[in-house]
Protein backbone atom coordinates (compact mmCIF):
# COMPACT_ATOMS: atom_id res chain seq x y z
CA UNK A 1 0.00 0.00 0.00
CA UNK A 2 1.46 3.35 -1.08
CA UNK A 3 1.79 6.15 1.41
CA UNK A 4 -0.51 9.03 0.51
CA UNK A 5 0.69 12.54 1.17
CA UNK A 6 -0.58 16.03 0.50
CA UNK A 7 1.38 19.23 -0.10
CA UNK A 8 2.28 21.23 3.00
CA UNK A 9 0.46 24.56 3.18
CA UNK A 10 1.66 26.86 5.94
CA UNK A 11 -1.60 28.86 5.63
CA UNK A 12 -3.33 25.95 7.39
CA UNK A 13 -1.03 26.47 10.40
CA UNK A 14 -1.24 30.26 10.79
CA UNK A 15 -4.07 30.44 13.29
CA UNK A 16 -3.52 33.72 15.13
CA UNK A 17 -2.62 37.31 14.32
CA UNK A 18 0.64 36.79 16.25
CA UNK A 19 1.59 33.77 14.11
CA UNK A 20 0.85 35.73 10.94
CA UNK A 21 2.93 38.68 12.17
CA UNK A 22 5.89 36.45 13.06
CA UNK A 23 5.65 34.70 9.68
CA UNK A 24 5.67 38.01 7.79
CA UNK A 25 8.57 39.33 9.89
CA UNK A 26 10.63 36.24 9.13
CA UNK A 27 10.00 36.48 5.40
CA UNK A 28 10.70 40.23 5.38
CA UNK A 29 13.99 39.66 7.20
CA UNK A 30 15.31 36.81 5.06
CA UNK A 31 13.39 36.81 1.78
CA UNK A 32 13.16 39.09 -1.21
CA UNK A 33 10.26 41.11 -2.59
CA UNK A 34 8.69 38.13 -4.37
CA UNK A 35 8.94 36.07 -1.18
CA UNK A 36 7.14 38.81 0.77
CA UNK A 37 4.30 39.03 -1.76
CA UNK A 38 3.98 35.23 -1.62
CA UNK A 39 3.93 35.46 2.19
CA UNK A 40 1.14 38.05 2.02
CA UNK A 41 -0.80 35.61 -0.17
CA UNK A 42 -0.25 32.85 2.38
CA UNK A 43 -1.31 35.10 5.26
CA UNK A 44 -4.37 36.25 3.30
CA UNK A 45 -5.43 32.64 2.72
CA UNK A 46 -4.90 31.91 6.42
CA UNK A 47 -7.18 34.79 7.41
CA UNK A 48 -9.62 34.27 4.56
CA UNK A 49 -9.40 36.18 1.29
CA UNK A 50 -12.94 37.55 1.49
CA UNK A 51 -12.54 38.84 5.04
CA UNK A 52 -9.13 40.35 4.29
CA UNK A 53 -10.37 42.04 1.11
CA UNK A 54 -13.18 43.68 3.10
CA UNK A 55 -10.79 44.86 5.81
CA UNK A 56 -8.34 46.17 3.21
CA UNK A 57 -11.06 47.95 1.25
CA UNK A 58 -10.27 46.22 -2.04
CA UNK A 59 -12.18 43.72 -4.11
CA UNK A 60 -11.62 40.03 -3.59
CA UNK A 61 -10.76 39.59 -7.28
CA UNK A 62 -8.18 42.39 -7.08
CA UNK A 63 -6.65 40.81 -3.98
CA UNK A 64 -6.30 37.44 -5.71
CA UNK A 65 -4.80 39.05 -8.81
CA UNK A 66 -2.36 41.24 -6.86
CA UNK A 67 -1.06 38.42 -4.68
CA UNK A 68 -0.97 35.74 -7.40
CA UNK A 69 2.33 34.12 -8.32
CA UNK A 70 2.92 36.55 -11.20
CA UNK A 71 1.09 39.45 -9.56
CA UNK A 72 2.65 42.86 -9.35
CA UNK A 73 0.79 44.70 -6.59
CA UNK A 74 1.04 48.44 -6.11
CA UNK A 75 2.66 49.63 -2.91
CA UNK A 76 -0.73 50.93 -1.79
CA UNK A 77 -2.17 47.41 -2.09
CA UNK A 78 0.71 45.93 -0.10
CA UNK A 79 0.22 48.60 2.57
CA UNK A 80 -3.56 48.03 2.78
CA UNK A 81 -3.15 44.24 3.00
CA UNK A 82 -0.44 44.51 5.64
CA UNK A 83 -2.62 46.81 7.76
CA UNK A 84 -5.66 44.55 7.31
CA UNK A 85 -3.51 41.68 8.63
CA UNK A 86 -2.91 43.72 11.79
CA UNK A 87 0.66 44.69 10.92
CA UNK A 88 2.44 47.79 9.68
CA UNK A 89 5.39 48.35 7.42
CA UNK A 90 8.45 49.99 8.95
CA UNK A 91 11.83 51.20 7.81
CA UNK A 92 14.70 50.09 10.04
CA UNK A 93 18.46 50.19 9.73
CA UNK A 94 19.77 47.18 7.91
CA UNK A 95 22.09 44.94 9.95
CA UNK A 96 25.70 44.65 8.87
Features:
57% helix, HI1420, DNA binding, Lambda_DNA-bd_dom_sf
Description:
The protein has 96 residues and is mainly α. It has one domain (16-84). It has helices at 17-30, 33-47, 49-56, 60-67, 75-84. Helix 1 (17-30) runs antiparallel to helix 2 (33-47), helix 3 packs across helix 4 (60-67) and helix 3 packs across helix 5 (75-84). The longest helix is centred in the middle third of the chain and has 15 residues, at 33-47. The chain is globular and about 50 Å long. This is Addiction module antidote protein. It comes from Candidatus Electronema aureum. Residues 49-92 form the HTH cro/C1-type domain. GO terms for molecular function: DNA binding.
Major beta sheet summary: none
- Alpha carbon gyration radius: 14 Å
What is the strand content?
Answer: under 5%
Question: What is the mean predicted local confidence, pLDDT?
Answer: 94
Number of domains: 1
Determine the structural class based on helices, strands and strand pairing: mainly alpha
Number of helical segments with 4 or more residues: 5
Helix/strand order:
HHHHH
Low-confidence runs of at least 5 consecutive residues: none
Give helix % range.
55-70%
* Chain oligomer state: single chain
CA-to-CA gap between the ends? 52 Å
Give the total of beta strands. 0
| Coarse morphology | globular
Précis, in short:
It is built from five helices and no strands. It has 96 residues and is mostly helical. Helix 1 runs antiparallel to helix 2, helix 3 crosses helix 4 and helix 3 crosses helix 5.
